[in-house]
Amino acid sequence: QLLREVRDNSLYQTSSGTAFMAGFNEFYYSFSPTISDWERQSPVFRDMVRISLTPMLSTLSILNHANIDSESAILGYGIAIILLNSVIYMVAPAMVLLVIKNKIKSR
């Protein structure tokens, strides 16, 4: 429901958001049927997907509270959310792995 609200109330209100959704939908529907099949077959996999998507959903909820009234506003928020998700999904895990690696090395 959150994703529908963000899509309908924020993204589809601008041409940039609409263009983003067109590209995203093409990408998403290229693999989502397979992921859905795997989720139906494995409750553990389904839970892993839910847990992994929670941070992204939280960051996207920002758009429901933002005052987006222009193309530049949606682009600014979009870039900020992409950067925030990059930190959450790539930088933070990389830093954790480096700390673990250094602790193992120092033993």
Total of DSSP H or I helical runs spanning 4+ residues: 5
Rg estimate, integer Å: 17 Å
Shape designation:
globular
- Percent in helix: over 70%
Spans where pLDDT lies below 50 across 5 or more residues: none
Instruction: List how many beta strands DSSP finds.
Output: 0
Structural class, judged by helices and strands? mainly alpha
Could you give the distance between the termini? 48 Å
> What sequence of helices (H) and strands (E) makes up the elements?
HHHHH
Mean pLDDT: 91
Beta-strand percentage?
under 5%
Largest sheet: number of strands, sense, barrel closure: none
Would you mind describing this structure in some detail?
By secondary structure, the protein is an all-alpha fold. 86% of the residues lie in helices and 0% in strands. It has helices at 2-9, 15-41, 43-60, 62-65, 71-105. Helix 3 (43-60) crosses helix 5 (71-105). It is globular, with a radius of gyration of 17 Å. The termini are far apart.
What attributes characterize this protein structure?
107 residues; mainly alpha; 5 helices; 86% helix
Topology overview:
Blueprint (H helix, E strand, L loop, with lengths): L1 H8 L5 H27 L1 H18 L1 H4 L5 H35 L2
Helix pairs in contact: 2-3, 3-5
Provide a quick synopsis of the model.
By secondary structure, the chain is mostly helical. It has 5 helices and no strands.
